[in-house]
Specification:
Strand content: 25-35%
Largest sheet: 11 strands, antiparallel
Distance between the termini: 5 Å
Shape: globular
Number of helices: 3
Structural class: mainly beta
Radius of gyration: 17 Å
Length: 204
């Protein structure tokens, strides 16, 4: 399994988009002509077989990460630029016994991104998770901001404070994702949220 981390690399592909958050372009973090909308067709050719083996999972993880790292996720009121995530494969203990079993969202054919509210011992936080096929991509690093101002908030780790007040029942979901025209270079490492009693906890 893979934890994937990159630093943003600006490029100058010619494109047309009005969706880039103003704060990112105004601060020269990215450029309007570097991104395009992610389409379901971009991922169809990477769909896993019904019973994939480890080589297929790793190969698919590499291919989708070239698309999804450095992507910009657009929620209704704010955005997230994803520079790092931890990758899990659901409901396949023989390949990834660190992943949680989950059938509630099944295996979407397009990338669905959720902000999931978490509460424990009086503390509240939000996790951003990208779901596609059997993959869970837990976002662990990047930039965040609101459309209402030019503030940019860097973060490292999966637990972040919500940008606006939320209740436990709130579910923030989007399928609007901007990806770069040129594939992103990245490195692979072990997951930060290691469970040392699990067989694959130290795999890359």
């Amino acid at each position: 399994m893979k934890t994937l981390a990159v630093s943003h690399v600006a490029d100058t592909q010619n494109a047309e988009t009005e969706l880039i958050p103003v704060s990112l372009s105004a601060n020269n973090i990215t450029h309007n002509n570097a991104y395009r909308r992610l389409l379901e067709d971009d991922l169809i050719k990477h769909n896993l077989n019904f019973d994939p083996n480890l080589d297929e999972v790793n190969d698919t993880a590499t291919k989708i990460s070239k698309l999804l790292l450095d992507s910009i996720v657009l929620f209704d009121n704010h955005w997230v630029l994803v520079t790092e995530y931890e990758l899990y494969i659901r409901n396949m203990k023989s390949i990834d016994d660190c992943a949680q079993d989950s059938f509630s969202r099944m295996y979407p054919s397009q990338v669905e991104v959720y902000e999931i509210n978490k509460y424990e011992k009086g503390n509240a936080w939000v996790e951003t998770v990208m779901f596609w096929d059997r993959f869970d991509l837990l976002v662990t690093g990047g930039l965040r901001g609101s459309y209402s101002d030019n503030m940019i908030v860097p973060f490292l780790g999966s637990a972040v404070k919500a940008l606006k007040p939320t209740s436990y029942d709130d579910e923030n979901k989007t399928t609007i994702i901007l990806v770069k025209y040129e594939n992103t270079d990245f490195i692979q490492n072990t997951r930060k949220l290691r469970q040392y009693n699990k067989a694959v906890a130290m795999q890359k």
